[in-house]
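Each field is set out as follows.
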Amino acid sequence: MGLSEERSWGIWEAVRPVGAGNPESVPLWQTVSLPHCYNALDAVDPAVNYYQGPGWYRKTLTIENPYPNGRTLLHFEGAGQKSTVYIHTQKVGEHVGGYDEWTVDITEAVEQFKKTEAYETQFKGKIPVSIRVDNSRDLEMIPSDLSDFNLYGGIYRHLNLKYVPQTALEKVFVSPTVDADGKQGLLQIRGRLLTQSNSSNFDVETQLYDPSGKLLLRQTPVVRSLEGSLDFGKLTVKKPELWSPDHPALYRLVTIVKSNGQIFKEESLFGFRLVEFKDNGPFLLNGKRLLLRGTHRHEDHAAVGAAMTDAQILQEMTMMKEMGVNFIRLGHYQQSRRVLEACDSLGILVWEEIPWCRGGLGGEIYQQQGKRMLTNMIEQHYNHPSIIIWGLGNENDWPGDFPNSTRRKSEHLCLNCIYFPTNWIPVEKQPYDVVTFVKILLMCIHPLSGLVGIVECIQIIKRPRQRK
């Protein structure tokens, strides 16, 4: 891994044949293990400004895909904040966004490089992979630099080299529903192929296992094409075990694609549960009232920054569960799949959101990234039974952004106001009573907004109801 203050430092410096110790070997490289965050120390030090700029990672790989005409992929679980991927000097992919997962297909680039002289002589039969990541300040990027959390740099979540057959699934979407009595579950299964050119001449088999691992159902559905996806049929489950914080029952669906003698297998964990948000009423899970007791989490840790290990993540989530948490808000961004897996298995309900925070509405580039991040978040974490709320972001509705808004000044400072429908009630229709007082106190969890909210609540109680 190497850092470069110069934006002009490019891919050639990563691959050119320079001996160790040579004065041209600049910047200096250091050996690291992935996941890795190059702000592991400076970003958690309040006495210094942390580095925001490019960082380079390089490695030579032996790549031999065992599947004839298969695809070779680099799957990123998270890298901050903008990334560019090269095979030797050829750019093969790029991504903007430090928290969503993404994949680069390197199949053709690898095959082309294997035909070059450098493959045999300089790199001794291996493939040079170089990755540039950059957490520089950028007015056109989400999250905004106005956000009150660090924008870490590095490949700080797992990076996977994947071999898949010619016909493979990019995603499997599992939609479980259960009737009001909890006596019958219905499972709708959809999928999306990795490459649309392979959308024929394949068979699909689905296998459903209960929480104890027992095979419940197996079927070979007739695949139907839908808009943007494939329908793999429905499965009916009688008396399903319902997922809850006290009983996090997880079912397992195995989806198998067979084509040209090759087999692709995808496993998906999910849960049956019934979620209800009553208007002006309690939250109900599986027909029973549940008091949500929760906390808030950022994905970073001392000495590693954003590159938390799987063990650290599991330890942290387990500690939360042991202290009585049954609900967590993952702020302000999509977090590692290990976090969601822990919430599924431990029984912690989740509110997850994209990092649209304090940046206002932004321009076209900014808005398009927000839409991509929202789509990616929902698709990537679609099957997790722990998630009950998807969030757009927070702290965005500042005075002046919406000139026609009739909300009071203090409400602009409240966190997460876009999620609470009562916040959008016009002022003249809001009852100035103890109910409003309690609502504002519950919303104002930030120290600053909480102070303003308390003052506002005192004023509400003292003054009579006003109308325009």
User: Anything to note?
Assistant: The mean pLDDT is 85.
